[in-house]
């Protein structure tokens, strides 16, 4: 990976609640352009929900999601809770404190208004900017052209303008789903599945659509003849390749790969991982890679975030996390990785993570802290000092 420090995706205090269930609770991280960020944890820890919240399949409960510096997701619950708490304090506050609390409430209401506006209109604003860019490019060309050239440029301008008006910032993030069978429409041919995004985007030229589909099929290791078939005619690995082609045809800057190999055989897993690696290099993709298998994540990821029960508990570079795992849950996950060595497996010590036994958060509450450059752990003051000693 190139040493690129440009942040493409920034997630701040993301919360995704379903009723009383806190699927994701106060998760923050960023993904730099060109890197693979791995997200690991046991089933039900909130990895997939985090990915789906980023791509706006869910309206987030609270927090902010920024993509390319633009806020694409914003929740309002944290502001509403702050307003409720402030109103409660006003009941026993002095006149001076009441004035401050009123100003605070007014500011929180403004934040709610801004959050709702950004959540609803970020794509419209992006489409407007794209439309202006097309006009700036084509209008001088039309003015300078004559005769047949002018007519051709005008036709191209109209086509590009129509597509620009349908542009959405969130389509620059695409998702590869865990189960290829469930995510591909059984009534559509491969050609229709892969080209659907471009059709929605406004592309009408059938020849262009056909060529793009063929190009994508060859890019992911399939052949042109597959375009007329249906998804049930393919193996699991081939279906996943179709899902990857459907994502890549939209020319995304970022792909969220939600356990793309967990439903596949080991040999096919390697093929799909190598394909994603090749696409990453060829197309300059940034990937958020969600998985259970830590050995796969170590091979594929530049940085890794470990999630437990809806919270991020540790975040570090791949090498650092495997060299110095600090949080007890991370150590538990790493102890579960099997090796193809019978002698080692006989003596391998499994570490069982019991949060009640490991932590005492009754008084000193945990926060995400940086224990070494780029290495963050969820811990309280006592644990922080202990981790610093371990690293020494």
Describe it for me?
The chain contains 15 helices and 12 strands. The protein has 392 residues and is an alpha/beta fold. Helix content is 49%, strand content 20%. The longest helix is centred in the first third of the chain and has 50 residues, at 95-144. The chain has helices at residues 47-54, 77-90, 95-144, 147-165, 180-183, 190-201, 206-219, 236-248, 266-283, 294-300, 318-323, 328-335, 342-347, 355-358, 381-391; strands spanning 7-18, 21-32, 36-40, 62-67, 70-74, 173-176, 254-258, 286-291, 303-308, 311-317, 367-372, 375-379. The strands form 2 sheets. An 8-stranded mixed β-sheet has the order 6-7-8-3-9-10-12-11, sandwiched between helices. It has a domain at 174-252.
In short:
It is built from 15 helices and 12 strands. With about 400 residues, the protein is an alpha/beta fold.
Q: Work out the helicity level.
A: 40-55%
Which structural class do you get from the secondary structure elements? alpha/beta
Share in β-strands: 15-25%
Radius of gyration: 25 Å
Low-pLDDT stretches are: none
> What is the overall silhouette?
flat
Mean pLDDT: 89
Q: Which strand order spans the largest sheet, edge to edge or round the barrel?
A: 6-7-8-3-9-10-12-11
DSSP, total strands: 12
What distinguishing features does this structure have?
alpha/beta; 15 helices
Task: Walk me through the topology.
Blueprint: E1 7-18, E2 21-32, E3 36-40, H1 47-54, E4 62-67, E5 70-74, H2 77-90, H3 95-144, H4 147-165, E6 173-176, H5 180-183, H6 190-201, H7 206-219, H8 236-248, E7 254-258, H9 266-283, E8 286-291, H10 294-300, E9 303-308, E10 311-317, H11 318-323, H12 328-335, H13 342-347, H14 355-358, E11 367-372, E12 375-379, H15 381-391
Parallel strand pairs: 3-8, 3-9, 6-7, 7-8
Antiparallel strand pairs: 1-2, 1-4, 4-5, 9-10, 10-12, 11-12
């Amino acid at each position: 990976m190139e040493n690129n420090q440009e942040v493409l995706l920034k997630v701040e205090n993301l919360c995704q609640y379903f009723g009383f269930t806190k699927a994701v609770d106060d998760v923050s991280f960023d993904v730099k352009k060109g890197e693979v960020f791995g997200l690991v944890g046991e089933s039900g820890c909130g990895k997939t929900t985090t990915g789906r919240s980023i791509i706006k399949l869910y309206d987030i409960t609270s927090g902010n999601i920024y993509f390319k510096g633009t806020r694409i997701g914003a929740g309002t619950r944290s502001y509403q809770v702050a307003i409720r708490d402030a109103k409660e304090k006003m009941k026993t506050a002095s006149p001076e404190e009441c004035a401050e609390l009123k100003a605070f409430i007014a500011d929180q209401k403004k934040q709610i208004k801004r959050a709702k506006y950004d959540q609803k209109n970020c794509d419209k604003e992006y489409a407007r900017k794209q439309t202006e860019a097309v006009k700036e490019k084509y209008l001088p060309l039309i003015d300078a052209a004559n005769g047949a050239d002018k007519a051709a440029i005008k036709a191209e301008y109209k086509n590009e303008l129509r597509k620009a008006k349908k542009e959405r910032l969130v389509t620059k993030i695409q998702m590869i789903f865990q189960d290829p069978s469930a995510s591909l429409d059984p009534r559509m041919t491969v050609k229709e599945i892969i080209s659907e995004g471009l059709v929605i985007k406004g592309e009408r030229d059938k020849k262009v659509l056909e060529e793009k589909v063929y190009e994508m099929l060859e890019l992911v290791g399939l052949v042109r003849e597959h375009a007329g078939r249906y998804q049930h005619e393919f193996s699991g690995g081939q279906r996943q390749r179709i899902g990857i082609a459907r994502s890549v045809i939209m020319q995304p800057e970022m792909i969220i790969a939600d356990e793309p190999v967990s439903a596949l055989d080991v040999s096919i897993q390697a093929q799909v991982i190598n394909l994603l690696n090749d696409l990453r290099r060829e197309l300059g993709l940034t990937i958020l890679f969600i998985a259970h298998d830590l050995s796969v994540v170590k091979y594929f990821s530049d940085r890794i975030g470990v999630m437990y029960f809806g919270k991020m508990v540790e975040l570090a570079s791949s090498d650092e996390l495997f060299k110095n795992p600090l949080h007890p849950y991370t150590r538990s996950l790493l102890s579960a990785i099997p090796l193809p060595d019978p002698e080692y497996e006989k003596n391998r010590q499994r570490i069982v993570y019991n949060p009640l036994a490991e932590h005492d958060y009754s008084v000193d509450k945990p926060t995400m802290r940086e224990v070494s450059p780029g290495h963050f752990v969820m811990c309280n003051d006592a644990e922080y000092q202990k981790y610093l000693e371990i690293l020494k």
